[in-house]
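Most newcomers find our protein records easier to grasp once they have seen one. To make this concrete, we reproduce a full record directly below:

…
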Amino acid sequence: HEPPSPTLKMPSRRNAEDLAHVSAAVAQNKASSSASPLLMLTYFVVAVVVSSLPVYLFTKPMFGEGKAPLGEEHLTTIAGVTLVSAVSLVVAYSSHADKQKKLIAADREAFVRRETGRSAIVTVPDVEPAAWSVFFNNAAFLAFFLTTAFYLLPRLDLATEINYGVSVAGPALVVALFAVFKVW
């Protein structure tokens, strides 16, 4: 007596369409998990603006008596700190936006499943998580910068260019590390 041979069942046309839809949505989600070049350029422009704004504070004589503000002789320090901070913030924006995009998609899929009783693949446009990421990371950078520049470092009596470098690049690196390691 021979065992029955397994029979292959051809998927119905409806199942094949559903499978094609799911495959396309999964491929789109995978492709969109990395930011587009235009979005990365937008992140970089915003990051350069945000990380270069503190220069104004450090070019004015406000950090104690006898300390010289940053001047033209410090342009390489200013450019280097701004570049390091901008790249760090771009990494933070991108990492945080990818995480937020996945969370938003999961929440919307759960909502659709709860409301309709059917499973659905939800695609999330890049704009919503990108905007939230820029807002959140800029707020964190600003909080860390203000705390470092106006509370911690003035107590150490450092030179203005060191105070500037540490108080701008330090918070940008902390924000990037927090975003990359999914602390927030």
The two ends are 63 Å apart (CA to CA). The CA atoms of residues 24 and 121 lie 10 Å apart. The chain has a mean pLDDT of 83.
